[in-house]
């Protein structure tokens, strides 16, 4: 099957070369996803990891200008080659490679925006190593938002039919209550609603919104943010035609008592993600909503301690690739 | 089988007579649990509910002084009779019955302390109705702690093999960070550890402690409570011989990556209970640790909207009875 006969390929960035990202990408070789994916990294990184793990690998250089030109053998991966200044050493990220890693992301995003790629899938990077290189960097999501001029990226985690979006992400718990304003909450819900329609193809999404406080504040006895912030935001959006339910107690929102919403919006990280990771351990996918491109990601880090050992589970990357293809309509 | 041939019976308070509590108790009739339970309520409440639901019921008066004296027919329930001043109307709690309800709890606790009963199981009450009667009341747990002179009751939720304890319970989210002091945390862990040993029979409990902040603070980048409060408390307790792991990110603590701890200690309500309710919907049990008696409870409220309809699911009450019997060694 020639590439030209199928949809646009996915751009898959291999992430931190000292982490598990490269070996997760190797797991694509030999699967049906190999022909639908282009790995963005230094070919030497993939070759070295394949050798270390005793795997055969044929790297085929991919040219976005001639997508159908190169055949892919059974043990092959298409690679859009970059050069890392320094060889990768498993478990020991090198700040000297940080700038090249970010270049890889730029190449991938440009390719998505130009239409060379159908979607972006990212393997994990090591935030602290990029900072050690003197580059201010708070995470993939924020970097991609900046690259694409996205004012408000929204984090959505997906595990099977369970979808959990976050109204706030990586904040100390003490900063959460003040962060949740009616304006921010409204903007997050609008992005969630728009992308459930545009990317997930759900015509009239049913969204459950959690309260901020336990028991959703219990009529003001356990906090007033529901009454003063969340309920007014929900009311205004419902009046504009959105199908929202809430604020619901978070310990009800994920149970059968809440029905089967298309997504649950948690107010903060640890209100929503423990359930998601419990339900979908090893196959959860992170989707960034609000971007002009489809972007999915694994739900785990670089796992430096097991990089190169062959122990890494590629379940989340495979799920991220599969979901990216689905969202891109590929 | 005469009662004298089995262990001490469980005291089961039927809870708010206008709620689903009475019909949950009816579900015990005809099961093996009927001979091991004594319902504490007004017999008229049970009779009226049975009639409304078209169920046969034989109420047999129970005398704690003569536990083996009364035979129990197949459709019977032992009842330690109280009198409610006013008849119950499904869905409409009456503050006139509030004092009698609390008397029922006192009778049950006294019976447990005297050794007449092996444990206490509580059906739900309506906090606001008790307050409407002019009685200050913040919940079953606090009331039972006061009755038994317990300085620090600890809430543990159980669903199958998953056990989740809470370091703080019904507080607005904004009040949580300041509430979690090293002293409180230490005291909660000591109660949890002691009761996992004494009541659950786990000789050397393995406890996972969650961080307060997302990613357990990510080395101070997302909050410093882990470094300043939680880690020192854990270190001191580990030095004293306890088997504690953490602080772990809450979205790791409930996954296979955290192993299979005997309990997870969440720092606050919505960090721990969404997972527990997701995992154990309809069969979760609330256990109050730290009391001198065994007390379990359903994990839901009075459900006034469906009281008397026959729709209430008795799964949680049956699970609460079963767990109480187990913890009491019955």
Approximate shape of chain A: elongated
Tell me the count of domains of chain A.
Answer: 2
Using the 3D structure, state the CATH architecture of the largest domain in chain A.
Answer: 3-Layer(aba) Sandwich
Distance between the termini of chain A: 15 Å
Detail the poorly predicted runs of chain A. Answer: 1-5
CATH homologous superfamily annotation of the largest domain in chain A: Isopropylmalate Dehydrogenase
What is the CATH topology classification name of the largest domain in chain A?
A: Isopropylmalate Dehydrogenase
How many helical stretches of chain A?
11
| Structural class by SSE content of chain A | alpha/beta
- How much strand content do the residues of chain A show? 15-25%
Radius of gyration of chain A: 21 Å
Q: What value does the average pLDDT of chain A take?
A: 94
| SSE sequence of chain A, one letter per element | EHEHEEHEHHEEHHEHEHEHEEH
Per CATH, the class of the largest domain in chain A reads Alpha Beta
Q: Considering residues with a beta carbon less than 8 A from a beta carbon on another chain, report the largest interface and each chain's count.
A: A-B, 41 and 41 residues
Task: Output the strand order for the largest sheet of chain A.
Answer: 3-4-2-1-5-12-11-6-7-10-8-9
Give the oligomeric state of the chains in this entry, treating copies of one chain as homo and distinct chains as hetero. homodimer
